[in-house]
Amino acid sequence: MTEVKILMVGPKSSGKSSLANFLADAVQNCENPSMAPTKPTVGTRILEFDRTVRKGTGSVNVSVELWDVSGDRAYEAAWPAIMHGAMGAIYVYDAGNAGEEKDLDQWHRWFGQNMGFKDSQCMIMAHRKSQDVKPSRSAIPKSLAQVHVVSTTLEESHDLIKEEFDRFLVHIETAAREMRQKEEQSVVGD
Ligand SMILES: Nc1nc2c(ncn2[C@@H]2O[C@H](COP(=O)(O)OP(=O)(O)O)[C@@H](O)[C@H]2O)c(=O)[nH]1
Ligand SMILES: [Mg+2]
């Protein structure tokens, strides 16, 4: 079992907590997860769950700590502590809120680039709260050009979101393993 810590960040009200609840199966007795009420996140919430993901010809078990970080910059002082030990970042923006994607480079600078993540350790969720919103990646900043974008909504078929998340987890699991190996080698080399 590999343990990974992943940060979910992005502007306020973009859908981070709803998506995090959905990924962690934290919403129970609710037919439509998008209808489950959320409250503005105070600081950070941590959701823990396990996933079994396909890797090569086999499968690996991954124990996920998903950190649902408030989009409110009032909590910025806690970001270094929040980032500590993270292996990946998911950037969520509201695709129905014109121009919101333009600020993604800030979030990338503050989190992914700050942590030295590879593009494969980051993912963008272009979240649509209504089916009327058309997915588009045209205005995503250049610094994120190689970062995988997934169009998400909790309105319709949700399976794709978990499939994409599992695919992302394979990259994160590999990165976590490589890092552990490097740490072990440096201990042996001392
Ligand atoms: N109808 C609908 N509402 C959504 C969807 N995703 C999020 N919301 C609502 O949008 C609001 C903000 O979502 P929230 O997850 O709290 O955003 P956060 O601030 O990024 O954590 C909440 O009222 C959610 O219920 C969706 O797919 N469909
Ligand atoms: Mg929230």
Question: Which keywords apply here?
Answer:
190 residues, alpha/beta, Rossmann fold, binds guanosine-5'-diphosphate, binds magnesium ion
Draw up the topology in text.
Layout: E1 2-9, H1 16-23, E2 44-55, E3 58-69, H2 79-83, E4 88-94, H3 104-113, E5 122-127, E6 148-152, H4 159-189
Parallel strand pairs: 1-3, 1-4, 4-5, 5-6
Antiparallel strand pairs: 2-3
Bound molecules: guanosine-5'-diphosphate and magnesium ion.
Question: How would you briefly describe this protein structure?
Answer:
The protein has 190 residues and is of the alpha/beta class. It has helices at residues 16-23, 79-83, 104-113, 159-189, and strands at 2-9, 44-55, 58-69, 88-94, 122-127, 148-152.
Task: Please explain how this structure is put together.
By secondary structure, the chain is of the alpha/beta class. The protein has a single domain (2-189), classed as 3-Layer(aba) Sandwich (Rossmann fold). It is built from four helices and six strands, in the order E-H-E-E-H-E-H-E-E-H. Strands 2-3-1-4-5-6 form a six-stranded mixed beta sheet. Strand 4 (88-94), helix 3 (104-113) and strand 5 (122-127) form a beta-alpha-beta unit. The radius of gyration is 16 Å and the shape is globular. The relative contact order is 0.20. The model has no long low-confidence stretch (mean pLDDT 90). Guanosine-5'-diphosphate binds at residues 12-18, 34, 38, 41, 71, 129, 153-155.
